[in-house]
Q: What sequence folds into this?
């Protein structure tokens, strides 16, 4: 597909080839408060986020996806994506905010950085950095990601070790704190 359309108000991608829906039950091992996650699963197992992607898997190709990360918390921790490294660690990624308010959390070794992202913000994720999106607002956080088609996604490393920091709601605001489950 050489041409597509994104509604810049809603974030809806007109055409996509892949759709991924992550419910609370798909996020086991990613949140610090497992009991809060279990309660959420028992009370309806809500959708945490949805990804609408147009993949191009060849070397030199660019894939892109729009993610709708819903508003909510698991205990104190905001809804987030699983986060990943690229299987080919030397691949970068570009994020563009469409709607809502989020954080892009990035980690390389023990170095952690985070950037706020709102409509129109463009954030570059350099090669070798794990990255995760977090919705710190009260509406859907919607963003476009563009990445090399051959980059791949390594979720397993994040599931195993986690990120060194988590983003929690405290006094009606977000706060970036140490992850008590970081390995």
A:
């Amino acid at each position: 597909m050489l041409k597509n359309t994104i509604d810049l108000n809603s974030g809806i991608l007109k055409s996509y080839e892949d759709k991924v829906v992550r419910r609370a039950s798909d996020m086991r091992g990613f949140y610090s408060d497992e009991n809060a996650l279990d309660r959420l699963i028992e009370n309806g197992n809500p959708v945490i986020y949805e990804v609408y992607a147009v993949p191009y898997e060849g070397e030199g190709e660019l894939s892109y996806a729009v993610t709708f990360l819903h508003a909510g918390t698991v205990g104190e921790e905001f809804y987030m994506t699983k986060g990943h490294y690229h299987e080919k660690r030397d691949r970068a990624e570009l994020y563009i905010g469409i709607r809502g308010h989020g954080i892009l959390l990035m980690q390389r070794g023990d170095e952690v950085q985070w950037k706020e992202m709102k409509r129109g913000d463009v954030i570059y994720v350099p090669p070798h950095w794990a990255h995760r999106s977090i919705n710190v607002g009260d509406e859907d956080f919607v963003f476009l990601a563009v990445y090399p088609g051959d980059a791949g996604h390594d979720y397993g490393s994040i599931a195993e070790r986690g990120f060194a920091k988590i983003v929690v709601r405290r006094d009606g605001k977000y706060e970036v704190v140490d992850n008590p489950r970081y390995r």
